[in-house]
Design goal:
By secondary structure, this protein is α/β, with parallel strands linked by helices. The protein is 41% helix and 15% strand. The strands form 2 sheets. Strands 3, 4, 5, 6, 7, 8, 9, 10, 11 and 12 form a 10-stranded mixed sheet that branches. A two-stranded antiparallel sheet has the order 1-2. A hairpin with a 6-residue loop joins strand 1 and strand 2.
């Protein structure tokens, strides 16, 4: 028994995770090691190997309580094992997508794993501008203790009005490793934040998936939040399932002509709508803790652009008709002239009357859940 325990201690999950083994080998080794572990039932205190309950058929009625007790433990650990195996495979698939990069819908096709930069101006390394406790997000995101926000450098879009252009377009930031990113998540959790807020994560989704997995192994418990432009690959989103708790995407445009004019992207609308549906499938509607803090679900943002009321109406129409009228929406009025907005002769700021028209249309559609900014 002591030899078995020492063997299991020396070959734990982290050791297997750090070894370069195929998923099939990892699965076999892990199951064998777990089967060697001696466990005691809390009721009868009889030692049993981990997987023996799969074949346990009680012969005496008095043993039924014993088996129920052990089966609860079995179910919990079996679920963790399945998550472990699936996550490892999904992370590998995300990194393989970077060989001919199609992590985002631009699908520029460069081999980012060979240090070649894609449209997003990013190769195989992670750059972040900052990580901080942020109190300026929507009320259920910032809550009372703030959101643990990590700002990633560069972006897969090229919005002429971007207010974060020094980070998203100029790439300001510092290089970190995947393990550094995991440690940052844990550091923010230690500061008491409600969630880990991943800002502009799309082009780093493979690295982020691995970092979240490592952080969870080390004790990350709070929700993870995917704060994106909404220009997402459904294939990549599916590989993130189980790692992301809250999705907070933009719905920027309701027609592709407007999307091309402002963000230099030709297929935004169809791509964005498919991504929002996938996010809702994974996370469901926004749900809250007892203190009103978001714990899981979908929250959609929309920035009202000057002289683009019809664009906003198209976005709201899609949400009401294709998603749900119960969807939580944050309607933002914070546009101001920035980056290359002068190239399109955009106004200095949004007119309050236009913002009110969008709010009135939202009300007419029966979209009542969400938040509005002061004009």
């Amino acid at each position: 028994q002591r030899q078995r325990q020492r063997l299991f201690a020396s070959c734990n999950r982290r050791a297997i995770n750090s070894a370069y083994l195929s998923p099939a080998v990892c699965r076999f080794v892990f199951v064998v090691l777990r089967s060697l572990r001696i466990k005691l039932c809390a009721i009868c205190e009889k030692p049993l190997p981990f997987l023996s309950l799969l074949f346990c058929i009680p012969r005496e009625r008095s043993h039924c309580r014993f088996c129920r007790c052990c089966f609860a433990s079995l179910a919990k650990e079996a679920a963790a094992l399945v998550f472990y195996m699936n996550t490892q495979q999904n992370i590998n698939k995300l990194f393989s997508m970077m060989d001919s990069c199609n992590l985002c819908p631009r699908a520029c096709g460069v081999n980012r794993n060979k240090s070649v930069k894609g449209f997003c101006k990013t190769a195989d390394e992670i750059f972040i501008a900052s990580h901080t406790v942020h109190n300026g997000e929507e009320p259920p995101i910032s809550g009372m203790r703030g959101s643990g926000t990590i700002f990633f450098s560069n972006c897969s879009l090229n919005c002429v009005f971007c207010q974060n252009y020094p980070i998203s377009q100029f790439g300001n930031g510092r290089k970190i490793s995947v393990n550094d990113l995991a440690d940052i998540m844990l550091e923010l959790q230690d500061k008491g934040v409600h969630n880990i807020n991943l800002v502009t994560p799309t082009h780093y989704s493979a690295h982020i998936a691995k970092a979240i997995y490592i952080a969870k192994q080390k004790g990350l418990k709070i929700p993870t939040l995917y704060n994106s432009s909404g220009y997402e690959s459904v294939e990549a989103l599916r590989l993130l399932e189980g790692l992301i708790d809250i999705y907070m995407p933009d719905i920027k445009y309701g027609d592709d002509e407007t999307a091309f004019r402002y963000s230099n992207v030709k297929n935004y609308v169809k791509t964005n709508q498919a991504a929002l549906k996938e996010m809702k499938r994974q996370a469901g509607g926004l749900s809250f803790d007892s203190d009103g803090t978001a714990k899981k679900g979908l929250l959609i943002r929309h920035l009202v652009l000057p002289n683009e009321i019809e664009n906003s109406k198209s976005c709201l129409d899609f949400i009401a008709k294709e998603l749900s009228k119960d969807t939580y929406i944050s309607i933002m009025s914070q546009y101001h002239k920035a980056y290359k907005s002068d190239d399109l002769k955009m106004p200095q700021k949004l007119d309050g009357g236009q913002y009110r028209q969008v709010l009135d249309y939202m009300d007419s559609l029966g979209l009542e859940n969400g938040w509005r900014q002061e004009e």
